[in-house]
Amino acid sequence: LFLMREAGARVYDVPLVTDAHDSVFIKDSGVLVSDKGRAFAFAARPTYEPRLLEQPDRIKEFKSLGIEIKDFAKANFEGGDFVMLPGEAGALMGYGFRTERECAKQL
């Protein structure tokens, strides 16, 4: 984390969600972007029940950190299946058993 902060990244500390054993994978909770110093999120809709259980706490935590929720996935989507390319060159999204292809249109 030190190197990420040194490189200029904004690092958020978020708590573990009790009884959600996979909640250590915070990237799956959504896609975060920043614009002019403001942070925005596209909130995930996990496919599997254990991941769904953590989303209300994650949304609450995002909001408490000043991250505005711009939209919620309308189909199954996990943030770990999406990555933005440097310099606004585009993005890559995988789809399959965790993320549905139709989310690409929404993103």
The tally of strands reads 5
DSSP strand (E) fraction? 15-25%
Shape: globular
Summarize model confidence as the mean pLDDT.
88
End-to-end distance, in Å?
28 Å
Approximately how much helix is present in the residues? 10-25%
Uncertain segments are none
Number of helices: 3
* Rounded radius of gyration (Å): 14 Å
Biggest sheet features:
3 strands, mixed
Order of helices and strands: HEEHEEEH
Structural class: alpha+beta
- Biggest sheet: strands side by side, in what order? 1-2-3
Please, could you describe this protein's structure?
- The chain is of the alpha+beta class.
- 23% of the residues lie in helices and 21% in strands.
- The strands form two sheets. It has a three-stranded mixed beta sheet, covered by helices on one side. Strands 4-5 form a two-stranded antiparallel ribbon.
Summarize the structure in short.
The protein is of the alpha+beta class and 107 residues long.
Properties at a glance:
single chain; 107 residues; alpha+beta; three-stranded mixed β-sheet; two-stranded antiparallel ribbon; 5 strands
What's the SSE blueprint?
Blueprint: H1 2-6, E1 30-35, E2 38-43, H2 49-64, E3 68-72, E4 82-84, E5 91-93, H3 103-106
Parallel strand pairs: 2-3
Antiparallel strand pairs: 1-2, 4-5
